[in-house]
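Severity: low
Component: inverse-folding endpoint
Summary: output formatting inconsistent between runs
Steps to reproduce: submit the following structure tokens with default settings.
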């Protein structure tokens, strides 16, 4: 028996090829964390979940942001510390997130952790806990 989780059904918001912009708050909310802090949070989350964290998109250029994709209408329930930013459909502004295909050339985006049938989203409360721990440690440095 294969204990690895796989994506039996590709979510509608994942493009078939390349990458596409998706409106945050429609298919998912997103939490954006830049650079080393984002990588630290991603690693903590993946390690804690035995590398089944749910979808995390990574940018290879610019701010090298990571986007943690949460269930729609879930990010606003938490107070995210600076410099973390929740991207939702809150009416104040529109936010779009680049989403790569599961296979093929998707540069400058790729999956740090892919969505699976069992883990279609990152768990918001767990992400908030990992962000809180990481930001406290980064402030102490």
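Observed output (run 2 of 3):
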């Amino acid at each position: 028996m294969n204990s690895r989780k796989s994506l039996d059904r590709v979510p509608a918001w994942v493009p078939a090829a390349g990458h596409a912009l998706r409106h945050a708050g429609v298919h998912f909310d997103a939490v954006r964390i830049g650079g080393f802090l984002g990588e630290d949070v991603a690693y903590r989350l993946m390690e804690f979940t035995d590398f089944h964290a749910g979808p995390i998109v990574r940018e290879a250029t610019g701010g090298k942001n990571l986007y943690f994709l949460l269930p729609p209408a879930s990010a606003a329930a938490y107070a995210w510390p600076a410099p973390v930013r929740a991207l939702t459909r809150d009416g104040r502004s529109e936010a779009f997130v680049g989403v790569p295909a599961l296979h093929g050339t998707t540069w400058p985006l790729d999956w740090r952790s892919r969505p699976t049938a069992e883990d279609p989203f990152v768990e918001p409360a767990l992400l908030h806990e990992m962000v809180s721990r990481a930001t406290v440690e980064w402030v102490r440095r």
